[in-house]
Amino acid sequence: WAPVAYSRQQAQTPVAPAAAASYVDDGDDDAADVAAAPVSADASIVGYANPFFAVQDQPMAEDNFTTPPLVSETVEWLSTHGLETEGIFRIPGNLNHMKDLKARFERGERNVLAAERDEHDVAGLLKLYFRELSAPTYPRDGYARLSQAADLTDSKTRIAAMRACLTTLTAGRFEMIGMLVGLMVEISRNHKKNKMTVQNLAKVFGPSFFLGLPVGTATNIFAIWIKDQDGIFLSSEYPVFDE
Questions:
Q1: In this predicted structure, what is the pLDDT of residue 197?
Q2: pLDDT digits (tens, 9 = 90+) for 121-169
Q3: 45, 109, 135, 150: least CB-packed within 10 angstroms?
Q4: 67, exposed or middle or buried, with CB in 10 Å at 0-12, 13-18, 19+?
Q5: How far apart are alpha carbons 201 and 113 in whole angstroms?
Q6: Cα angle at 73 between 207 and 116, to 5 degrees?
Q7: What phi and psi, each to the nearest 5 degrees, are found at residue 34?
Q8: Share of the chain above pLDDT 90, in %
Q9: 3-state SS class at 152
Q10: Cα–Cα distance between 37 and 241 in angstroms, integer?
């Protein structure tokens, strides 16, 4: 996954009002999985009528965050070896072995995964890393805004709102989250072989990533990130809205 260049807190594109909705899954991996309701009857209202955009989020203070080797190396390994593995991220690995791998990364060892053969151990290591963080990668004080963005019905509005939330993060955090989501997208594209649809991946990984969020909320947000990856993570611009 190659992150695009972006400027933090880009100007938000005016949007028409939209009602709230939640993620639903019908068993297929298509855009219809995200329920869409009509935009406000007065579609001529363009601007910041949607309450979400009435609040200007403050950019996160620079913290020089960089992707830890454990994350970048596990993502790279799974991109090569785990895309078609049935039950990836759902079937647990060997906990003792995962803890040993994590300890080796923490000691600064190199090529930790060179001899690994079990996809579930490596996938479990990635989940374990996020689950044991003292503070989540996406700051807790931004959870409420993420939840509001996820509840927006209109897809373009939702993408713009999610991107508005994510671009308040430092570049390092944005890029690492994008790397994770990119892996999930690749895995979901092989769902006929690995049995891991977008919803399945979001259920098993979202709660580990969003520490402290209700499982349903964490799953909903992570599923939207995977489904709307292009607009949220790969575009250098906000979506264009028809007036």
A1: 98
A2: 999 999 999 999 999 999 999 999 999 999 998 888 898 889 989 989 9
A3: 135
A4: middle
A5: 23
A6: 95
A7: -95, 110
A8: 66
A9: strand
A10: 17
Residues in a beta bridge with 152 = 20
pLDDT in tens, 40-53: 333 323 334 677 87
* Separation CA 212–CA 191 (nearest Å): 28
Distance of CA 177 to the CA centre of its chain: 6
Gap between the Cα atoms of 192 and 167, Å rounded: 33
Q: Which two tokens mark 210? A: 């969003």
Q: How far apart are CA 131 and CA 112, in angstroms?
A: 20
Contacts of 239 (CB under 8 A, 6+ apart): 13, 156, 159, 160, 231
Residue 34 pairs in a beta bridge with 23
HSE, side-chain direction, 13 A CA sphere, residue 78: 33
Q: Please state, in angstroms and as integers, the Cα–Cα distance from residue 112 to each residue in 102, 105, 119, 125, following that order.
A: 9, 7, 14, 12
Which pLDDT tens digit goes with each residue over 71-96?
A: 999 999 999 999 999 999 999 999 99
Q: What is the distance, to the nearest Å, from the Cα of residue 132 to the centroid of all Cα atoms in its chain?
A: 18
- What's phi and psi for 152, nearest 5 deg? -70, 140
Q: Quick check: 174 and 9 in contact, CB under 8 A?
A: no
What is the structure's pLDDT at 118? 97
Nearest to 34 by CA among 164, 138, 151, 115: 151
- The residue whose two tokens read 């363009």 is 46
